[in-house]
Amino acid sequence: MTPQDIILIGCPVDSGKRSRGCLMGPDAYRTAGLADALADLGHRVTDMGNLAPEQVAPPRDALPHLHALVETIGWTRRIAQTAEAAMARGLPIFMGGDHSLSLGSVAGVAAHAATMGRPQFVLWLDAHSDYHTPQSSTSGHLHGTPLAYVTGREGFDDFPALAAPIPQENICIIGLRSVDPAERAALQESAIHRHDMREIDEHGIARPLGAFLDRVAAAGGALHVSLDVDFIDPAAAPGVVTTVPGGATVREAHLVMEMLHDTGLMTSLDLVELNPFLDDRGRTAQLMVDLAASALGRRVFDRQTRAYG
Questions:
Q1: Is the pLDDT reported for residue 25 higher than 90?
Q2: Sign of CA dihedral 78, 81, 85, 87
Q3: Which phi and psi (to 5°) does residue 114 adopt?
Q4: So where are the chain's domains?
Q5: Are 295 and 41 in contact (CB under 8 A)?
Q6: Annotated catalytic residue 141
Q7: CATH T-level fold of 5-301
Q8: Is there a catalytic annotation at residue 143?
Q9: Is 193 an active-site residue?
Q10: Per-residue pLDDT averaged across 189-210, rounded?
């Protein structure tokens, strides 16, 4: 395994929904030993600490139902700038924070890929599609909008202009099991590759993932992976607000990460929606750290038994 330069970027974003607690996520990953786990694999790890949102003026004529719009715009600006710069230094891991942080992380890494002449691909591991626009979201929670934003859907006039919108066919969502009617209609009209848990139950998780990774490799693409805690079944990962039963097993999640490492295609990673306030003695934080380690080279035989008593 070739050592990499890993840049940890704390994104304590808690503006994407009304339930609080995700701002504690970055420090929970640190406490669970993310840096040490990656350093033990031989990687060179730098922790940039936690970011803060830019100060932005309130937009005119903002939709009144949107929660914390100004703060989320500020976060998007800061994270996008940081992401683009970090890509020139190594492989950034964005420690969240709710999933609205991906408005910035994906936009930033895509901008860097464009300057390098590479197509950007996105693997979205999530129970939800996050394909709402501000207009279609009935909750007003902007953590449900990142994929709509980065693909250039209308309705994001108040957000930073995209330097490099991502083609729909360059996105793959795996783990779907909770999709709103408006998102379902939009997804069915899109070229986004999407695989729900019914398909995973019937055919396994390796088949759709392998097909997508083959497309990334054939295109010489950069691959951003966005791992939401709720991709995993809440019995194994309880530390999340948006619990949806029937998610990926721990073994399925590790297989995804191991396949990513085998291909060497991953160029950036989000760890999002961890809410330590809802976790059980750090179980979810530790699992997310273990998954990140699998994506960066930890093998099945390297894992230790861990007691939570």
A1: yes
A2: positive
A3: -65, -40
A4: 5-301
A5: no
A6: no
A7: Arginase; Chain A (3.40.800)
A8: yes
A9: no
A10: 97
Alpha-carbon dihedral sign for residues 125, 101, 163, 190 = positive
Q: Which of 84, 98, 99, 158 is catalytic?
A: 99
Annotated catalytic residue within 71, 158, 230, 290? 230
The torsion of the CA quartet 134, 68, 240, 181, rounded to 10 degrees, works out to -20
Active site residue 228: yes
How far is 9 from 14, CA to CA, in rounded Å? Answer: 15
The verdict on whether 126 is a catalytic residue reads: yes
What does the alpha-carbon distance between residue 28 and residue 280 come to, in Å, rounded to a whole number? Answer: 12
Residue 302 identity (one-letter amino acid): D
* Rounded Cα distance, 266 and 154, in Å: 28
Helices 283-295 and 250-263 pack at an angle, to 10 degrees, of 30
Is 201 in the active site? no
Q: What is the sign, positive or negative, of the torsion defined by CA atoms of 69, 73, 76, 78?
A: negative
**Residue 15 in contact with residue 100, Cβ under 8 Å?**
yes
- pLDDT, tens digit (0-9, with 9 covering 90-100), for 211-231: 999 999 999 999 999 999 999
For the chain, the straight-line distance linking the first and the last C-alpha, in angstroms and rounded, comes to 34
